[in-house]
Model the fold of this input.
Amino acid sequence: MAKSILITGGAGFIGSHVVKFFIKNQPSVNIVNLDKLTYAGNLQNLVEVENNKNYTFVKGDICDENLVENLFEKYNFDSVIHLAAESHVDRSILNPMEFITTNVVGTVTLLNVAKKFWSDFSDKLFYHISTDEVYGSLENETDFFTETTSYDPRSPYSAAKASSDHFVRAYHNTFGLPVVISNCSNNYGPNQFPEKLIPLAINNIKKNNPIPVYGKGENIRDWLFVVDHARAIFDIFHKGVVGQTYNIGGDNEWKNIDLIKLLCKIMDEKLNRPKNTSEKLITFVTDRAGHDMRYAIDSSKLKSELNWKPSVYFEEGLEKTVDWYLNNEPWLENIVNGNYKNYYQDLYKNR
Ligand code: NAD
Ligand code: TDX
Done:
């Protein structure tokens, strides 16, 4: 049983849910959350656990080898759950280099330190959190990504994530480092930075601003409620087999345009607007460069071997998400009133 876990990127969207899930479900373990607090990191995501005696936050960069070594020395980690990453595809198109630095160099820095400190690999685990995007884009609606689908990353983001996955496997094969990897589909839920489709649309609908839908809105994503992802990570962490990969998905494919229409309907109800008001905000804009058409995950391995399945029905999860954003106005306003304005201007002005 793990006693001291380093979680990287724990102030971000998924990471903060993972930190909270572990503290709630395994309160005896010590958790150190190492996060650089980039634009995407937010300590407000962690207020409910910040005073927990088994939880420590460290502001720092996963690329800083000295810092990571000092933390291994001080806390004697037996496990790493690695979520820190640059995570937004559109930003990777604007600035690929940051993605290589954090996602590739940062991951290899962590692998090197774990290899150095874990002279004995028994009861150790390096758990790398990855994405379905490494598998590329599906064109045929009967195809699904499985754990053996060949990698075919097509954006700077997914290329950097794919590269980090390769390094993790290489450290397992070459040095025997005990690793496990999971590749998950699109997450949604509370605390997601409003650069991603769902919270961006919620914010724009609320303010009566246009909802930018790339291309014709025909692209398909498989959506999973973030707490279901955190639970999958918990299960894989405890029951996953070293050296294995697990796909995590929601069995929940939506065309972007249909998802946005559903969101508009929910928002009309929540904001007491007449039916079909928010749909009028839908604005088709220039497509994302290299926009992957469809992601669809086959997570039957995780279901059959570790007995996991998604638990939150999409309409219910989407409603919970809308409620969270409407009830947490200061969280959202803090973000959208800051540097976000410049980001939004730069990305959307010529679309
Ligand atoms: P996010 O952008 O919300 O959070 C990333 C966190 O990493 C932030 O807190 C940020 O401050 C931190 N970080 C960034 N660079 C760092 C560095 N150099 N050192 C330390 N910390 C740093 O991302 P997310 O959506 O929560 O994604 C978390 C992980 O899950 C990523 O690895 C991502 O690739 C993966 N993933 C995300 C999704 C999704 O739908 N969001 C789906 C599958 C997999
Ligand atoms: O303004 C927008 N308009 C739009 O049509 C935005 C931001 C997105 N989109 C489209 C692009 C995608 O087809 O919506 C879909 C979802 O876009 P994002 O929320 O940016 O997610 P995606 O590009 O699918 O990647 C996400 O899932 C996999 C996460 O950002 C990644 O971190 C994760 O690995």
